[in-house]
Design brief:
By secondary structure, this protein is mostly loops. Helix content is about 0%, strand content about 0%.
Length: about 80
């Protein structure tokens, strides 16, 4: 059976949410830096640290019971993760 655990890192951050003070790009989008090393102080708010070796990236979403949520009918899709380096 596969087991999934959070990897330790000095920031002690294991998630990023709308409650965080995320940095938004000029076009209104938000980029996340999912990597082992800090992307720099100006981008650290959007950095959920990841281990240097292989890992599983998971997304958890919440919505109100009677609220329309477009991921359920497929009209919204999670953006693809792009490897930069």
């Amino acid at each position: 059976m596969q087991q999934y655990f959070c990897a330790y890192h000095p920031l002690n951050r294991y998630c990023v949410s709308a409650r965080d003070k995320l940095k938004t790009d000029a076009d209104g989008s938000t980029e996340f830096y999912i990597q082992a090393d800090s992307p720099g102080k100006d981008r650290q708010s959007n950095w959920p640290p990841a281990p240097k070796d292989e890992f599983v990236l998971m997304t958890r979403m919440y919505w109100r019971k009677h609220e329309y949520f477009p991921i359920l009918d497929g009209s919204w899709k999670i953006p693809a993760v792009k490897k930069v380096n």
